[in-house]
Every structure is written in C-alpha cells, then in structure tokens.
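[INFO] parsing input record for Pimeloyl-ACP methyl ester carboxylesterase
[DEBUG] input buffer:
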Amino acid sequence: MRPFFSFLLACLLFYISPLLAQQVTPNDATLSQYTYPFPVQYFNLSLQGNSLHMAYMDVTPAQPNGQTIVLLHGKNFGGSYWDSTATYLSREGYRVIVPDQIGFGKSDKPAHLQFSLQLLAQNTHRLLDSLGIHQAIILGHSMGGMLAMRFSIMYPETVRKLILEDPIGLEDWKLKAPYADVDKLYAGELQQNYEKIKKYQLDNYFHGQWKPAYDKWAALQSSQTLSPDYPQVAWNNALTSDMLFTQPVIYELEKIQAPTLLIVGTLDRTALGKDRVSPEVRATMGLYPALGKAAAQRIPHAQLELIHQVGHAPHIEVFSQFIKIVNAFLIK
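[DEBUG] output buffer:
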C-alpha cells in the first residue's frame, strides 16, 4: 500500500503547488513584513559612499558556556533558515550570532556596490568587533561556507573552529562554464517566481524529495518577486552571483589554519554556470563527494563527514544528523 500512498501524496503536491504560489505574501526588499525566529538588530556600515544597515540576530543562551558561534547563510536565504540550528546551539550554551549579509535578507540592498567576499568578511568582522567578540566558531553553508573560508583566511586569529556545510566554491567554475555578465544575470533574476524557485530547491537542495516543511523557504524567497521592490533585490542577486563566479577561494585552502569540519551531502551537485554548458560538461560539475574529499586533503586540519542520500542543505533536510555531527566536532 505504501507506493499507492506515495503516489497520492505526489499528486496532492502537484495540484496544491500552484495554490501555494498564489498564497505567497509579497515582501519588500528588506523583508520588513516577515518575522525572524529571534529579535533582529541592525549594525550601521558606510561602504563605498553608501550608508547601509546590516541586520543580525544575537541569540543569548540561558546558561552561557563562554563560546560564540557565527552562522553564515547561503546565497538564496537570509539568516532565518538557521532557526533550528540557532535554537539548538543556544540551548547548549553558545551565544549565536546570525548576520544577514548586505544584499540579503533584512539587510539593505544597495543600488551601487562592488561586492566581494572580502567585503562581506570585513563587514562580518566589524560586526563582531562592535559586539566585543574577538574569537568565535564560524559555521557557513553554501555561499556562507565560501565566505567562511575567506573570513578564516583574512582573520585567522578570530576563528577558533571552522565548520563548512556543503560550501560552494570547491571548484573553479570559470574553467568549465562561460562567463555571464551582470546584465544577463539580472535579466534571469527578473524571471524568477515561486514555481521556478521551488524547482531549483527541489533539484539542488532536496534531490527530488519535497516535504511540506520546505514550502516556507520557497515561499519566503519567492515572496520578494511579488513586490515592487523586486528589481532592487534582483539586481543585488545578480551582483552577488557575479561575485561568487569570479572570486574562487579554492586556490587558497592551504591558508586555512583553524580546525575544520567539512560536511557534505553525497547527492549535492550544486555548481554555478551549469545552465550554460553542455550536458556532458554539466555531468562533471558539482561532484561534491569528490570535491569535499579533495578540499579536506588540502585544508591542514580538516575532517570530512559525508551524509549519504542528502542534498545541498543537510541542516534543513536531516537536521538531527547534521547537528549530531556538528556537536561532536564542537566538544572535541
């Protein structure tokens, strides 16, 4: 009977997906109508002639253990998707800092800014300095993992331990995919909607296994596409996509000094530029198990943990497995 019920569930999701798309509530460029899991504060930055507000959550534990963890979000999310992770770590006594990088989430979306991983790392370091935090554990997912690597290279004295969850940038996409300029990326961003965003997450994050719990993340990302502010958001998305494609960290992994945990979902195949290459080339990109193994061999003090039959977002898809691995590393 189980295959029959699976079939019924698949049919139900097929028919309700358009309804969910119609029920998505529009959100402006800084998600002012959306409530984050913890109180949001703002850090003021002056960048390239822009006065900008960087949103962040500062989760104070009831029984502090004296350590701080910084959670760095991925490209298609803000800090809100760390809800379960931040809750768990806070209960374990960690102070948890969850920034929204400039251009993402509740932070400002500037019209003119030269984005770089170095700039985002610098912004994060300034935020930590303002909070009196001079050492922290850094945990980054996807783009946040790429940023965490850059942060660790720039500020080795600040990083006690480094955790990389399916970090992008473990290969140089420029070697296989043609460059797409910001105008082309922007035009593509303007075409986004709920159905396309859900399909991308289904294919890349959840490898074809959609659960109702994932709907809120597809709905949140697509909510901004329904707002008059969306061109502003799309422009920042294009600028940061260009940043990730053109600024690989892969050539500097040996510079990472902190003890490092690399967590990889074995079904992850994420790679920028896959849509611009032939099927034959595409099949050689984003091979995360092999990329993770190669990266762990190059980072001086690294260990690799594979999570089998899991895609690009283990902390959402299999939280209990993810946090068990993280916790074991933290208490070593």
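[INFO] The longest strand covers residues 50-59.
[INFO] shutting down worker
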